[in-house]
């Protein structure tokens, strides 16, 4: 068994994905595997991916049609042979000790770890230059310098101190997170009834927490979100549908419902 499996679902974001893989080159050895789940990618993207020259051979899962975030990640979990499954989005450049810190964070207990997301925005030509450079230390320093933490980060840290696992379960996210594979399997992984954008990771965190897994933050595990245009109206609509489904699943847990409603209103007001 390997120490860790990194699961990266992707859909037609090769200019970003290849930077994520470059950043992982120095972190992947015989104890770590990378699983890329191509979720409805175009033939052109699949062809261009084959041309990439990487320092390791990623495992590839190809879904010809888009199956969605939950099913894509589940297929990665089922393929994984690592004790720890690390979830990484295809537009988040991991820090230099990303993998080792995730693995070490699981010592001495049953945990689900959530790292820190910093946002950074560049035009495509800058991303191209980073890739041609090989993502050098100088590039990393620039990315770190140009990035900013998620909004309201100080307030979030205070809220976590006050509300503990209640808020940790409701704010669990999978763009930079990890859990033991056996714990993911035990709670039946992601619920594939969540479709479109949002809440499938919240639901997973809630179920992991209720099963006895402690949700922990490790703010030293940073990845850099390469901000890109999104359809906010579509995201909001999909999120609301998934939110109502999630509330139905946790019916009876009044404290979690109140917290979820408060956070949803705060974010999508």
Written description of the protein model:
This protein is α/β, with parallel strands linked by helices and about 270 residues long. It has a single domain (about 5-269), classed as Spore Coat Polysaccharide Biosynthesis Protein SpsA, Chain A. The chain is built from twelve helices and nine strands. Strands 1, 2, 3, 4, 5, 6, 7, 8 and 9 form a nine-stranded mixed beta sheet that branches. It is globular, with a radius of gyration of 18 Å. It starts with a strand and ends with a helix. The mean pLDDT is about 95. Keywords: Transferase. It comes from Ruminiclostridium papyrosolvens C7. This is Glycosyl transferase family 2. InterPro entries: Galactosyl_T_C, Glyco_trans_2-like, Glycosyltransf_2, Nucleotide-diphossugar_trans. Pfam families: Glyco_transf_7C, Glycos_transf_2.
SSE topology:
Blueprint lengths: L1 E9 L3 H11 L7 E8 L3 H8 L8 E5 L5 H11 L2 E7 L3 E3 L3 H7 L6 E10 L3 H10 L3 H10 L1 E2 L3 H11 L1 H6 L5 E5 H6 L13 H11 L3 E13 L5 H18 L4 H14 L2
Parallel strand pairs: 1-2, 1-4, 2-3, 6-9
Antiparallel strand pairs: 4-8, 5-9, 6-7, 6-8
Helix pairs in contact: 1-5
Radius of gyration: 18 Å
Q: Overall pLDDT, averaged? A: 93
CATH architecture annotation:
Alpha-Beta Complex
What low-confidence regions span 5 or more consecutive residues with pLDDT below 50? none
Q: Strand share of the residues?
A: 15-25%
Largest sheet: 9 strands, mixed
- Class based on secondary structure composition and strand pairing: alpha/beta
The number of domains is 1
- What is the chains' assembly state? single chain
In the CATH scheme, the class would be: Alpha Beta
Query: CATH homologous superfamily - what is it?
Result: Spore Coat Polysaccharide Biosynthesis Protein SpsA, Chain A
User: Order of SSEs, N→C?
Assistant: EHEHEHEEHEHHEHHEHHEHH
How far the N terminus sits from the C terminus, by CA atoms, comes to 46 Å
> How many helical stretches?
12
**Proportion of helical residues:** 40-55%
Can you count the beta strands? 9
Instruction: Write the CATH fold name.
Output: Spore Coat Polysaccharide Biosynthesis Protein SpsA, Chain A
InterPro entries: Galactosyl_T_C (IPR027791), Glyco_trans_2-like (IPR001173), Glycosyltransf_2 (IPR050834), Nucleotide-diphossugar_trans (IPR029044)
GO molecular function: transferase activity
Keywords: Transferase
Pfam families: Glyco_transf_7C, Glycos_transf_2
């Amino acid at each position: 068994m390997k120490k860790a499996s990194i699961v990266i679902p992707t859909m037609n974001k090769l200019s970003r994905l290849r930077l994520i893989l470059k950043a992982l080159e120095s972190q992947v050895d015989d104890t770590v595997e990378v699983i890329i789940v191509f979720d409805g990618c175009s033939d052109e993207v699949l062809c261009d991916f084959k041309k990439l020259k990487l320092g390791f051979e990623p495992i590839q899962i190809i879904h010809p049609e888009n199956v969605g975030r939950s099913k894509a990640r589940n297929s990665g979990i089922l393929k994984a042979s690592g004790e720890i499954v690390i979830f990484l989005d295809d537009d988040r450049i991991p820090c230099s000790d990303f993998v080792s810190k995730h693995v070490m964070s699981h010592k001495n207990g049953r945990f689900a770890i959530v790292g820190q997301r910093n946002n950074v925005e560049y035009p495509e030509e800058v991303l191209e230059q980073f890739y041609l450079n090989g993502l050098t230390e100088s590039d990393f320093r620039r990315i770190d310098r140009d990035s900013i933490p998620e909004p309201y980060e100080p307030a979030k840290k205070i809220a976590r101190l006050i509300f503990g696992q209640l808020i940790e379960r409701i704010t669990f996210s999978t763009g930079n997170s990890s859990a033991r594979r056996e714990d993911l399997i035990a709670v039946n992984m992601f619920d594939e009834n969540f479709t479109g954008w949002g809440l499938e990771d919240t639901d997973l965190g809630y179920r992991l927490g209720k099963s006895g897994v402690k949700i922990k933050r490790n703010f030293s595990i940073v990845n850099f979100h390469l901000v890109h245009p999104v359809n906010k109206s579509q995201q909001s609509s999909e999120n609301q549908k998934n939110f109502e489904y999630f509330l139905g699943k946790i019916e009876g847990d009044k404290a979690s419902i109140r917290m979820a409603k408060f956070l949803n209103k705060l974010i999508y007001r």
